[in-house]
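Justification of computing resources. Each target in the renewal requires a structure prediction run like the one illustrated here; the chain below, 140 residues long, is used simply to show the kind of job we budget for.
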Amino acid sequence: MNCHLHFDHCGGNPSLAGRPVFAQRAELELVRAVESHTFPELVDHPGARIEELDGEAEIAPGVFILPTPGHTAGHQSLVIRRNDGVVIVAGQSHDNANLFTSDALGHHAGVGTQPAWLDRLLRMDPRQIWFAHDNAVWTP
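Resulting structure tokens:
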């Protein structure tokens, strides 16, 4: 699963030929319509097995993909229900854990404007959220 299909997130996909890559329809449409979005050969490469999604999906028992649009129209996050709690790989839903914290606090206080998907993500009661370009991990 890639959180989105910019080259720095999908650059290794050709080495995964034959394995499923889950992507939102909105992201695939963007990739195929806007040449500058990414390098098309990283998405539609020989052996590509793209599983196109329209919204939330359980891709394995306890493993979910949740649309978190914003950075791109088809951005998505990976939710993993483990015995010790829920862990979310949120990619670039936020640039870093600090910005996520700001939105989470605003959501709980009922102030400001947050992404529409934030409530769904927080209701999953995550014990950790990881971001693509940040070494910090969000914990409640």
